[in-house]
Amino acid sequence: MSFSATDINLKALRSRAYNLRWATLPEDVIPLTAADPDFSSAPEIAHAIKQYADERVFSYGPAEGLPEFRKTIAATLQQRKQIHTHDDLVLPVDSAAQGMFIIAKYCLQPGEEAIVFDPVDFLFKAAVDNAGGVAKLLPIDVTTGVFDIHLLETMITPSTKMLCLCNPLNPIGKVFSRDELLAIGNLAVKYNLWIMNDEIWSDIIFPEASFVSVASLNAAIAARTITVYGFSKSFGMAGLRVGFIVSPNANVHEGLLQVSQMRTTAYGVSTLSQVAGQAAFEHAWYWVDAFLEHLTAMRNYSVERLNAMPGITCHLPQGCYLVFPNITGTGMTSTEFASFCMEKAKVAVVPGAARWFGPGAEGHIRICISTSKAVLEEGLNRIEQALQKRL
Ligand SMILES: Cc1ncc(COP(=O)(O)O)c(C=O)c1O
Fold first, then answer.
1. Are residues 97 and 196 in the same domain?
2. Which residues contact 361 (CB under 8 A, 6 or more apart)?
3. Which of 20, 110, 181, 297 is packed most tightly, with the most Cβ within 10 A?
4. Cβ contacts of residue 48 below 8 Å, gap of 6+?
5. Would you say the CB of residue 318 lies under 6 angstroms from ligand 1?
6. 166 lines ligand 1 (CB under 6 A)
7. Residue 367: inside a domain, yes or no?
8. Mean pLDDT by 10 residues, the chain (391 residues)
């Protein structure tokens, strides 16, 4: 696959890609919004779904997930992320989002506190809120990715039970260094806090950065870490709603399973989606590698283009297929800028509004770059022309 315009099935996207994307917008609008690839997924994933479906047996699966799925996940995490785990500690969930909600519910009693970076994806605060917890926001510099570990320590109170980590960090594209992760992990050990470790973006790492999992650092930190992953970002499987949680031990795993309500069968992950997730981890890494090569070119291209536009500066993200330009030089707020793009350029972007990423995102917009060069170029051309007309 060349990840060019011919690898995009626009007809299918127009009827299937929701969540602020093609299916929800007028035909003349280019969506650079939700972090969801425009490209069709690896054929091996569809093949596995077809093979399973051909048998026409769709019985209940086990509440704790298909054994083959759990085995593949544990082996892959060991091999690719140096996370020492075991099949029995892997719990399939119907999305990373659901995994985050389950983890927050397990770790927090109503009124207890969790520390959440600002800015970061809205799901962290949503998960904490849903558990009845209180999210305390820790600022992180959008451009440099620097945060104050001492400030983080002073924010910890007797009510604090969880630190939320998004590595790499959507929307700023920061990849945490080993030293930063050690510092965060050591605080979790010192104060007996859980780390909600969201690694959904951990395969989208650009060449200058390297990914380290906080769960791989040492046994003490691993014992405090609950990792969540989803297949939406790396494999383009968002609609299949599948991911997993990895627990540090059997007690935590059992607690999460209880909170999840999967044993009651009120919740649970479709067996077809687990089959697809397993196929992705077993057969589709070549696809992710090629995707990443394309994304690296798109990142370089979009950052260069944005920095040449009046009133805009844009840092180079280390991970995630998102760019997060500073638009304050245009004199518009992020919401005004997003409306401007929609009305004057017919391009949809996500405003750096508090509801999406926290108050620290203001002055920025988020652009998803997981599309073809042709679509991205057209979107950026339109934004540039609209900005030039304002001058
Ligand atoms: C950091 C982060 N976590 C979780 C999710 C949710 O992913 P899923 O589709 O698996 O629910 C997203 C999606 O944008 C994300 O960026």
1. yes
2. 118, 119, 142, 171, 324, 334, 352, 353, 354
3. 181
4. 275, 276, 278, 279, 283
5. no
6. yes
7. yes
8. 91 96 96 97 98 97 97 98 98 98 98 98 98 98 98 98 98 98 98 98 98 98 98 98 98 98 96 98 98 98 98 98 98 98 98 98 98 98 96 77
> Hey, whose CA ends up nearest to atom 7 of ligand 1?
96
**pTM score:** 0.97
Question: What is the CA(360)–ligand 1 centre distance, in A?
Answer: 19
Ligand 1 contact via 8 beta carbon (within 6 Å): no
Q: Residue 358 is which amino acid?
A: G
Which tokens belong to 3? 């990840």
Q: Are residues 276 and 352 in the same domain?
A: no
Q: Which of 235, 260, 282 is the last residue of a domain?
A: 282
Kindly state the DSSP code that residue 248 receives in the 8-state scheme.
S
Q: Give me ligand 1 centre to Cα 54, in Å.
A: 30
In the structure encoding, which two tokens stand for residue 247, read together? 């627990």
**Which residue, 210, 201, 204, is CA-closest to 179?**
210
> Do 313 and 268 fall into the same domain?
no
